[in-house]
Specification:
The chain has five helices and 17 strands. The chain has two domains: 129 residues, Roll (Diaminopimelate Epimerase, Chain A, domain 1), CATH 3.10.310.10; 124 residues, Diaminopimelate Epimerase, Chain A, domain 1 (Roll). The chain has a 17-stranded mixed β-sheet that branches. It is α+β, with helices and mostly antiparallel strands. Bound molecules: ligand LBFN2T5F. Its EC number is 5.1.1.7.
């Protein structure tokens, strides 16, 4: 018995991936929370469950390690794409998430995924009150960007000096964001380079956040600080973001860490 899973990461953003194709979904909020505990479980930033699809190569669902659901997870999408590409030999495939059908491609050993067009309009974003998403009414003048999930992007002079662990949770749970938010701190290094650090909703500090990287690139371009294609240094490495006519493409590394089976006793204890 037990439950087979894989551990992957994309630029240090780490995931447990469960392949539930051909059976009913098995992940529940209590399982995600227990498995996400780095001491009593396996530990991950997000859990991704692959399911059979009738409209794409696979369907994909995401959970944070506090057991909450996430509408998007760019780096896990890239890891699942790589897993599928390794299995099938394909170099292009489609993955359906809450956002819709996303396209992924293998290029030079890295995986690119089209994360879709950003949500920038007030009525597309889960914000409280009649606020301007381009200039949220918070100290630091952050911008709200949706990539399926919500991000509040702050521009700072020195990303290393930001107290991400102190400020991040306060912004995540600010009443302005009824469904909480991810929080990015971005330092513009050049028109084609950004340094970004992140506090993820439902998870905390992570070494990278793909949808956060996309949101940051979009916010920087919208404010006229960068071009639409940038390199981005995150705590776990580098990503490339390219906001094209068909959506925001994110490219970066993926790594398969190990395969294992979760003992039945762990599942029975939930
Ligand atoms: N690491 C992810 C984002 C995961 C979801 C996020 N914490 C949320 O709750 O929206 C990524 O690579 O996009």
């Amino acid at each position: 018995m037990g439950l087979a899973f894989m551990k992957w990461h994309g630029a240090g953003n780490d995931f447990v991936i469960i392949d539930s194709r051909g059976r009913d979904a098995v992940v529940t909020a209590p399982l995600a929370k227990a498995l996400g505990d780095r001491h009593r479980g396996v530990g991950f930033d997000q859990l991704a469950e692959i399911r059979s699809s009738d409209t794409a190569d696979v369907d994909l669902d995401f959970w944070n390690n506090d057991g909450s659901r996430a509408e998007a997870c760019g780096n896990a999408t890239r890891c699942v794409a790589r897993y599928m590409m390794d299995q099938t030999g394909k170099t292009a495939l489609t993955i359906r998430t809450v956002r819709g059908v996303l396209e992924a491609r293998l290029a030079g050993g890295e995986v690119s995924v089209n994360m879709g067009q950003p949500q920038l309009a007030r009525d597309e974003l889960a914000l409280a009150g009649e606020v301007d998403p381009a200039h949220l009414p918070l100290a630091g003048d952050p911008m709200a960007v949706g990539m399926g999930n919500l991000h509040a992007v702050f521009f700072v002079d020195d990303a290393e000096a930001v107290d991400v662990a102190g400020i991040g949770p306060r912004i995540e749970t600010d009443p302005l964001f009824p469904a909480r938010t991810n929080v990015e701190f971005a330092e513009i290094r050049a028109r084609d380079e950004i340094r970004m650090r992140v506090w993820e909703r439902g998870t905390g500090i992570t070494l990278a956040c793909g949808s956060g990287a996309c949101a940051t690139a979009v916010a920087a371009a919208q404010r006229g600080l960068t071009d639409r294609k940038v390199r981005m240094e995150v705590d776990g490495g580098w990503l490339v973001l390219d906001w094209r006519d068909d959506g925001v493409w994110m490219t970066g590394p993926t790594a398969h860490v190990f395969d294992a089976v979760l003992p039945q006793a762990f599942l029975d204890s939930l």
